[in-house]
Amino acid sequence: MGEDGQKNAENKEAMVGQKRGERSDEDMHKFYSDVQGMEKKLKRRGEEIEVVGHDLYREYLRDEAASRLNELGKVSDVNGYLERTFLSPASVRAANVISQWMEDAGWVDIMGNVHGRVDGMNASAPALLMGSHLDTVVDAGKFDGALGIVSAISALKVLMVTEKLENLRNPVEVIAFSDEEGVRFQSTFLGSAAIAGILPASTLNISDKSGITLQEVLNKNAVGVTEDKFIQLKYQPESVLGYVEVHIEQGPVLEAAGIPLGVVKGIAGQTRLKVTVSGSQGHAGTVPMSMRRDPMAAAAELIVLLESLCKQPQNFLSYDDDCSTVESLFGSLVCTVTFTVDLRAMDDAGREAVLYELSARMYNICDKRSVSCVIERKHDANAVKCNSELSLQLQSAALTAFRKMAGNVDVDVPKLMSGAGHDAMAMAHLTKMGMLFVRCRGGISHSPAEHVLDDDVWAAGLAILAFLENHV
Q1: Which of 88, 175, 267, 385 is the most interior residue, by most CB within 10 Å?
Q2: Domain around 211
């Protein structure tokens, strides 16, 4: 192969997996000045050497944090990809790892949430809570949830090594929530909802696909889990100052803007439906088209209807997944089709209006096709707004991080809505909350392709450090 041919091959290889409009790592790095070059320049000036060492904290906020994310990304229940569901063996191992990062000063509650606390100058004052979730989806990425845990621990470690923990006016508690994704029990926010006090005791009776109840799982991991102990997990509102969560954006907005951090304005409300369409089985070659009661064709029309309703200019997000059929023989018409619907919007009343119209039109379509339709409402969560004061403080902290890493930049910290649900939704029932988003390459999440730059991990850590130093 000639030199030109080799270069072309290398260029093609570098572009593998990169989607149109997606930025490369090199493009994403353009936000930052050459930090290493800046350090060398400061060192030559002599008097500012100490500022570099104690202002950027690369060792803890970047290198160690990235290493810990990689370490946690290897704690899985299966070989070959990341899967760590609620109170699985890998989840228990991950909790032990996180406890060690907390300098063994933490504890694990009966729901599997990992807690670590520093008292600051007043142990009895209301505590700031920070964190995210340690569980994952199946075939997950290593940043979803884990980044929020690691960045909080790293920022507190900087305060510890610089002997500034006692300067905190309020206690700070980091919580690694045991279940946010809801993979095992199809019930999201088990960990944070228990802390927020919005998880009813009846939740103990829900079961996974193997028929094992939540109470049986908890009893296996803790001794004598009762309804009273379950309810006692709730924190008292007067004991909490607020909740702050760092999370990957799981979308493309920050990357498109070329900015590593953004402040969340609010989290969209969500409704999940299970739709079952049933018709008649028959021979695919002998039943005339006009006489068929075909649930597959009806389901396809219902899915297109959902798409068309949410394309109206009302800022709704929807998807349908988990589409399946009752097993049938080759050459036979399908008897039953099931699929799920996920509808999200910041406007709760608007979401309800769309659901009402969607249901009415679905039933109408199925009536015309002579098939039955059952719509089950499986999950509801109202939209929540982030606290304006916390959001302004996080915005200021993000700008501080930008200026430490990229010089005296003058940028507007983006303000985003979150279409995805987060533990902050549950915690909003307990206290005021704020969120900081970190860009991820291509907006990809819930995938092994999920990726965050080490320098963006660093920026998130610096922002949380600035927030703690200036506002807690």
Answers
A1: 175
A2: 47-267+384-471
